[in-house]
Amino acid sequence: MLELYHWEPNGACARVMITLKEKGLDFASRYLDLLAFEQHAPEFVALNESGEAPVLVRDGEAYNESSYICEYLDEAFPERPLMPEAPYERWEARAWQKYVDDYLAASTSDLAWNAYGKAALEGRNVGPDQILGRAPTRERQRVWADALEGYDEARLEKARNRVRLTVEKMEADLQDSDWLAGKAFSLADIAVFSYLNYLPRLTPELVNARTAPRTMAWLTRMSDRPGVKAALAMARTPDPFATAAPGPEPVRWG
Ligand SMILES: N[C@@H](CCC(=O)N[C@@H](CS)C(=O)NCC(=O)O)C(=O)O
């Protein structure tokens, strides 16, 4: 039996939700309202000590980190494989996943929190002391403290610059293939989509049909996939890409 602790189908949660749907795997949904701080409840922290979603539970064993949950699912359930077979293409898929983990996730999360997250938290009747007092690790306390304070322009500009680099990288990779790693849809596409789908609205000057035609066509191809549609249909908010929680702390910026 598979259980998934998740929030809205965006960011890291979307990665695992799409992977499960694309592989046709049944799972019990355990919805966490991240803006009600259900991820800081002791029962959830017992599953993931950093208090971050998503977490997969299989037969009592808890798995965190979306990249590795997706790879685990692909290995444990080999039908409908989502990793390429050829070693070079497997490397490409992993390199994209690392790029998302190290750069795109943090940059997009910063832009999305700045645009939507703070506003979504208003009216929730939860104060900074309560949030910071319950965040389970020093890293998550720092991430939440920065998010509550709001990001300065230099940080947002770094995030936009990362979007610019991502679009250049995508336009190059999509030159002779419809998908990012090799010729077939893979975990690389799922990883990138789960963040990139925010960007036509957050950075329309960078992600649009004129400056990023292949990226926009790829976004349409992704959105048309039944697995992606099924995952996005699990949203409880009207638009999962118009809300956000803080994501991973930025690493190796600049
Ligand atoms: N490295 C983690 C990042 C997970 C992550 O960024 N989770 C966000 C939601 S997308 C979260 O739980 N934020 C709320 C919090 O940290 O309190 C992964 O990819 O699994």
How would the blueprint of this fold be written?
Layout: E1 2-6, H1 11-22, E2 28-31, H2 42-45, E3 55-58, E4 61-63, H3 66-76, H4 87-121, H5 128-134, H6 138-149, H7 153-173, H8 187-196, H9 199-202, H10 213-223, H11 226-232
Parallel strand pairs: 1-2
Antiparallel strand pairs: 1-3, 3-4
Helix pairs in contact: 1-3, 1-8, 1-11, 4-7, 4-8, 5-6
This protein binds glutathione.
Glutathione binds at residues 11-13, 34, 39, 51-53, 65-66, 140, 245-248.
Distance between the termini: 43 Å
Uncertain runs are none
Secondary-structure class: alpha+beta
Average pLDDT works out at 96
Sheet of most strands = 4 strands, mixed
**Which molecules are bound besides the chains?**
glutathione
Annotation, overall tally of beta strands? 4
The radius of gyration is: 17 Å
Measured as a percent range, the helix fraction is 40-55%
- Name the helix and strand elements from N-terminus to C-terminus, one letter apiece: EHEHEEHHHHHHHHH
Strand line-up across the major sheet: 2-1-3-4
Number of helices: 11
How much strand?
5-15%
Can you tell me the overall shape?
globular
Descriptive report:
The protein has helices at residues 11-22, 42-45, 66-76, 87-121, 128-134, 138-149, 153-173, 187-196, 199-202, 213-223, 226-232, and strands at 2-6, 28-31, 55-58, 61-63. The termini are far apart. Strands 2-1-3-4 form a 4-stranded mixed beta sheet. A hairpin with a 2-residue loop joins strand 3 and strand 4. It is globular, with a radius of gyration of 17 Å. It is built from 11 helices and 4 strands. Helix content is 53%, strand content 6%. It is of the alpha+beta class. Helix 4 (87-121) runs antiparallel to helix 7 and helix 5 packs antiparallel against helix 6 (138-149). Bound molecules: glutathione. Residues 11-13, 34, 39, 51-53, 65-66, 140, 245-248 line the site of glutathione.
